[in-house]
Specification:
Strand content: 35-45%
Largest sheet: 11 strands, mixed
Radius of gyration: 27 Å
Number of helices: 4
Number of domains: 4
Shape: globular
Bound molecules: zinc ion
Number of strands: 45
Helix content: under 10%
């Protein structure tokens, strides 16, 4: 018997570093005066999306954010998810969105505060007249922050090409300098994806992984996909970043290439098809239309191993600054039986058609365009006669849908009269339930789901818990702080007042459960006793009120 090896010839091939810069129009100046480092780059892999901009480190908050060129402020928003958000339209045809800001400057800051009291809402949005707030390159436009869903102080900067609406890599528009990168991307592992019924990798689990640090051997036959886990690095930071370009060649022929230059908001969720467990696939599912993925063979990037010989593979990774590295490996073609696939009684869903799934008390509609490839559903119904509804396993593992698809689950026992208290619950293997929303309609709960998994209907009658934090120092701090917690469906709305008058409460950082209100002398009379009231409502309409004394 012949024994074959897959060997990583890192020592031979090595990691080559090239430093060739791109020639693109450089029209933007940088948003900060200080030395810049990124905590996130364009297109890096995030949960259910590609990162749509650059994250600049700010080492603390309240750094002056400057305009990148000549243009005008085109939209002003305050949101729970991204804090203060500022959009600027520039004369060069690009628009930027600055997120997680701590505040605005000048007359905009004043106007937003007025608007919040006027609308009695922390979240406000305002589109000024074109050229109402013109900016020139270098003008201060905002204060950087850490607001909304943010893991640390930074500026998130998105650049959108006005003509197409595409997110583009902001690095392609900045003047040279300021960022330093001579470090190439590095791979952590390569994964094989033998195609069920068409390919096999000997002795392998479903997706065998090849480590890069030691020689290992693999023998394969039939149609095989490949994927690579890799990160990029930059000078002066310990962060890792997304890889700009990945190319795979077999015996010197390129079969796949990705170049992450641009993508649109409607494409970003396709990351769920392109990646698997952090590995970037070098083959493209038939329903995946991400434009920056290119396959150059007949099998959408899958490689057909049909000769008993070594196949020489090479991955080339590149970052935006032209630094690159290569990883070579060999897969030995060895004829071996390809196991037949028995889908049994599973439902077949097609990526290119409208699909229906029906079980007693449940219907699911998955329209065309919602799946990236055909899937055989492992569907099970757990009928518990004492429960509000049956529990439906739509598929045995989570499977992302491109957008919301309608799921209806029948209520079998109406344990609570108020239909507002029911919600569709996603059930995780540990038994924990999370709200998938839903509205009541003729004995059913109806919602849109973005992922196949296990679902049922549950009831939430438990109101949120409101806890005042360090109440005795509110007056001294000039700030009211509450901690909010909701056990089941989560907080949907909150409203605060001081002496019956609207008070702008906010959740400064949504990774932390604190809600705050700054005491403002221009809106509340300082001196003496006040009554603070906070009303919090969860997604099933359960409400709590906290009334507290304030001396200020
Ligand atoms: Zn970001």
């Amino acid at each position: 018997m012949r024994v074959f090896f897959i060997v990583f010839m890192l020592g031979i091939c090595g990691i080559k570093v090239q430093a060739q810069e791109k020639h693109t129009p450089t029209t933007f100046s940088w948003p900060f005066d200080f030395q810049l480092f990124l905590s996130g780059n364009f297109g890096e892999l995030r949960s259910n999306h590609l990162h749509s901009g650059l994250d600049f480190k700010t080492s603390g908050v309240n750094k002056v954010v400057r305009a990148l060129g000549d243009g005008y402020i085109s939209k002003i928003r305050v949101t729970n998810g991204s804090g203060y958000v500022l959009e600027v339209s520039y004369r060069n045809g690009y628009r930027t969105i600055n997120r997680h800001l701590n505040g605005f400057v000048g007359p905009i800051a004043e106007r937003v505060k007025e608007l919040q009291y006027e609308k009695e809402s922390w979240e406000v949005e305002w589109v000024p007249q074109m050229d109402e707030y013109p900016v020139k390159a270098g003008d201060p436009i905002a204060w950087s922050g850490n607001m909304g869903y943010s893991m640390g102080p930074h500026l998130h900067l998105e650049v959108i090409e006005e003509a197409t609406g595409d997110y583009v890599d902001p690095l392609s528009l900045f003047k040279k300098g300021s960022l330093m990168d001579t470090r190439p991307p590095r791979a952590e592992g390569i994964m094989l994806f033998p195609q069920m019924g068409y390919g096999v990798v000997e002795g392998a689990k479903q997706h065998p992984v090849i480590g890069l640090h030691r020689a290992s051997s693999v023998k394969a036959w039939g149609l095989i996909g490949f994927g690579i886990k890799a990160y990029d690095y930059m000078n002066g930071t310990n962060n890792h970043y997304g890889v700009y370009s990945v190319a795979l060649s077999v015996d010197g022929q390129e079969v796949f290439k990705s170049e992450l230059d641009r993508f649109s908001a409607s494409e970003t969720r396709m990351i769920n098809s392109w990646t698997y467990g952090g590995y970037m696939k070098s083959f493209i599912a038939p329903g995946n239309t991400l434009r920056f993925l290119q396959a150059y063979n007949a099998h959408r990037g899958l490689v057909e191993i049909n000769e008993e010989r070594p196949y020489h593979f090479c991955y080339t990774l590149k970052d935006y600054f032209g630094n690159s590295s290569q990883y070579r490996f060999i897969v030995q073609g060895l004829k071996q039986p390809i196991p037949a696939v028995d889908h049994g009684t599973k439902y077949a869903f097609g990526w290119n058609k409208i699909n229906y799934l029906q079980e007693p008390g449940m219907t699911l509609v998955v329209p065309k365009g919602m799946l990236y490839e055909d899937v055989w559903l492992d569907c099970k119904v757990k009928a518990d006669s004492g429960a509000v509804a049956f529990t439906y396993q739509l598929h045995d593992k989570p499977l992302a849908l491109h957008a919301g698809c309608e799921l209806k689950i029948g209520i079998r026992r109406k344990l609570v009269k108020d239909s507002l208290k029911y919600y569709v619950a996603r059930v995780w293997p540990n038994g924990r339930k999370y709200s998938a929303g839903g509205v009541y309609e003729n004995g059913f709960m109806k919602t849109l789901i973005r992922e196949l998994g296990t679902y049922t209907v549950a009831i939430d009658t438990v109101p949120p818990v409101i806890t005042p934090v360090s109440k005795s120092v509110w007056g001294r701090m000039g700030k009211i702080v509450y901690r909010l917690k909701d056990m089941e469906t989560g907080i949907a709305a909150f409203r605060g007042t001081i002496d019956g008058q609207y008070a702008p409460f906010k959740c400064p950082n949504t990774t932390r459960p604190y809600w705050e209100c700054d005491l403002d002398k221009r809106h509340f009379k300082k001196g003496g006793k006040h009554v603070v009231e906070l009303t919090v409502t969860d997604r099933c309409g359960n409400q709590s009120v906290s009334r507290d004394r304030l001396i200020w």
